[in-house]
Amino acid sequence: MKPQCLLLVILLVLPTRASSCVTRWFDRDDPSGVGDFETTVDLRKEYPGQICSNPIEIEAQTVDGIPAGNTGQIFNPFNAAEGFACVNAAQKTGSCRDYRVRFTCPPEFCSGCTTRWFDRDDPSGVGDFETTVDLKKEYPGQICSDPIGIEAQTVDGIPAGNTGQIFNPFNAAEGFACVNAAQKTGSCRDYRVRFTCPPEFCSGCTTRWFDRDDPSGKGDYELTADLRKEYPNGICAEPVAISVQTLDGTPASQTGQTFAVFDATEGFACVNQDQVSEGKSCRDYKVRFSCPKSFC
């Protein structure tokens, strides 16, 4: 009877792990200062859109692959919501190892789709308010009911986390706000936001996958304007969202690469020289669009 019970437990656990998705490994800090801080809030700023809003689990290991739990060091915090931190002064040796982390996210985060960029406000008044409730009113049907993630950048493309400004709120449920009075300069930059939505948001009317370019030249350019020329009537006039993955099915958000364009209106572009990987080459990507039901 015992072996049968053990088998039952295994069968119950496996589907839960299989139904989730795991991010790439992140290593934003070294222990050369106070310690090694791989906190969720800092990682989201440095890697916008690559971590889900509500991670299920977090893993940590040294950069050479030793699980954090096997190093004998002390960590605080070490949870999915806050992230990971190792303080040098708390260790017997006086120094932390160099760690990296990755997150387990809901399955829809890996297969989700990304909306267009939205910019409904300017910082000319109290600040720049790109709140989810206001955006849904202004752009009905273009944002899912329960977004998984949110990204923010200046209108000229600088990630919000790189501007040094303060934001509250900055989450998928509430959206994004920058208050002028809270900034050292007394003024916010002009921001835009976009959301990651569950795959069912894209499934109402989804185009075929398009792959018109290869990264053999300057990069991989799957721009909407070019795709419309090559595939007339294949894409709706106002796409609701865009999904991007490599030709072998890896979601773009899991490749660790940087993208110059990733927008439902403009399309997608990966520039070879922007990549930090060896060889400075983009993967080969394909895209598809989610369109209003009227397009179907």
- N-end to C-end Cα span: 55 Å
Q: Find the structural class using helix and strand composition.
A: alpha+beta
Sequence stretches where pLDDT stays below 50 over 5 or more residues: 1-19
Count of helices?
6
Largest sheet: 5 strands, antiparallel
**Radius of gyration over C-alpha positions, nearest whole angstrom:** 21 Å
Order of helices and strands: HEEHEEEEHEEHEEEEHEHEEEE
Percent in strands? 25-35%
Helix content: 10-25%
Q: Assign an overall shape.
A: globular
**Tally of distinct domains:** 3
Total strand count, please? Answer: 17
Please tell me the overall pLDDT: 87
Order of strands across the main sheet = 9-12-7-14-17
Polypeptide structure, described:
It is a single chain. The protein has 296 residues and is of the alpha+beta class. The chain has three domains: 104 residues, no CATH class; 91 residues, no CATH class; 77 residues, no CATH class. 16% of the residues lie in helices and 27% in strands. It has six helices and 17 strands. The strands form five sheets. A five-stranded antiparallel sheet has the order 9-12-7-14-17. Strands 1-6-3 form a three-stranded antiparallel sheet. The N terminus is likely disordered.
How would you sum up this structure in a few lines?
The protein is α+β, with helices and mostly antiparallel strands and 296 residues long. The chain has 3 domains: 2-105, no CATH class; 111-201, no CATH class; 219-295, no CATH class.
